[in-house]
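Practice record 12: protein with adenosine-5'-diphosphate.
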Amino acid sequence: MAEQECGFAPLVFRLHGGAPQVVREVLLERGWEEYDEEEQEEGDWNLYWRTSSFRKSDYEKILPWQRLNHHPKMSQITRKDCLARHMRRMKIAFGIALYDFSPGAYILPNEYRKFLGVYTKNRTTDRGKSRYWICKPVDLSRGRGIFLFEDIKDLVYDSSVIVQRYISNPLLISGYKFDLRIYVCVKSFSPLVIYMHQEGLVRFATEKYTLASLDSLYSHLTNTSINKFGMRYDTDKERVGRGCKWTMSRFRSFLHKQDVNQLLLWHRISNIVTLTLLTAVPCVPSSPNCLELLGFDILIDANYKPWLLEVNYSPALSLDCPADVTVKKGLINDIIDLMNYRMIDNFRQKGYLRKRSSSRYLRPKISQGFLLPKTRHAPSGSKSRNHSISSSSSSQDTNCPFHPNSKSTGHEKAPQTFEEITNEVESDDLKLTPFNSTRHSHRNTPSTVFKLPSLLVPKLKSSAVLWNSTTQDRGVPPCRVGDFILTFPFNEATWKASQDQADVKAIVNEVHELTNRLATSFNEKEKTKMESSQSAGVGDKFEPLLWGPKDPPLLSECCSLNSKVK
Ligand code: ADP
């Protein structure tokens, strides 16, 4: 294998029972080996993937070259009741208008009286608001235990539930309701770094939408786990086709044919993701060796307004249909690229060499951070150059077991320091080569595009990494990795505000300002005003891309657009 030919130990993944088969498949295709508990030692794996959460001790025992696929405390946004509580808190702190993407929700039985008050007011006075409610068990998924009601006498529950305002005017395609499954990768909570995947899934109900029968789950719920048992699942449904899923690309081209200007829609969805994750920032302890893949469920209503329905922990990665295969295999490949494992594997090998000679694991002196390659001396536009990579560790978190101030783990007297290893890694392992991406060739790419070294298999999809040319030397994450687009931070101010103790208020203000600026730019009347304020720039040369379109434009380019969202 190429990796061994180069003298590297093969990368090793560890899957907990129930972990998705597609993760195994992709990693084996990339030349990784599967961890064997009987044969190998605890420190022998590089990536541990679990569908359920890790124990506290898993975070404490982690070694420099190891990664876990979950951050701690994610239930803060993935449990329906916690999310409802956070959304309410943010509405109070920052105004209902900014957080109005989340349908009002009440946690029962505790908030029954509060709900009763709203329900009664709604029946008598609240014109224009939905008269319908949806009841969901707080800790179940896949549509289990969900029902709709209009009359409170039909509200019956025997466990903790949330009752949420039902979005009763969804956008329909040929009469079918659908929602979007958006894949989001949180690379770090401190600083907050969010990537959104351009591919995703559109999940359809399999019976036509009607408010005349609230009992028909096949017409009101879009969960695949429910609709694959629907009578019309295999029928060739008008426009929707067979089954109940589309890829996001197919949805984009549908919108395009409908003459819908999508840019503002995608931007609104990206805002929902940022504003939702911000609620979790103060609760999630910094864990530099962790990464989280989340599934955001977004419903678009008939006015093209996106709504957040929920955030899924360990979103389903089963391959049930061709759309799943296209989307999920690419997604996993891009996640692995985002982790930039080459460097970490070298840590492991060197740690082991050291361990074998001194019977100790290697412990770096500083927090390792979640490392991504950083080019040095790479002026944009250069045609052929080798770039060495250095660590971009910025986290100084004391919870990290490798931080100098963290509690003793018994390994602190490591004979070799992190810095020494990094220097060695820089000198020999990681060379970046310029990459001519056709994806970006249609416009003047503002940044240099690089390709990470292929790990093992030459036939792999190339892992394009697009850097902000002006920010790469400051440890700012690349704005694109494969189909992952960096959506946060999106400018200098948000980058600074998310360091150390995140300044949530400052970040919320920036999000608000950008949205106003974009919304204004979509209004033709305001075009002139926009152009005159261009000097303020969206990103102070930060050069963020707009998430959503297949070939995303720069956010700053969108600010000068003057077409209307339909
Ligand atoms: P689960 O975790 O069980 O999938 P969700 O909150 O995602 O629970 O709800 C399941 C489905 O119900 C969604 O995919 C969507 O189709 C529908 N749904 C949920 N909440 C609402 C809502 N407030 N308005 C309209 N439809 C909703």
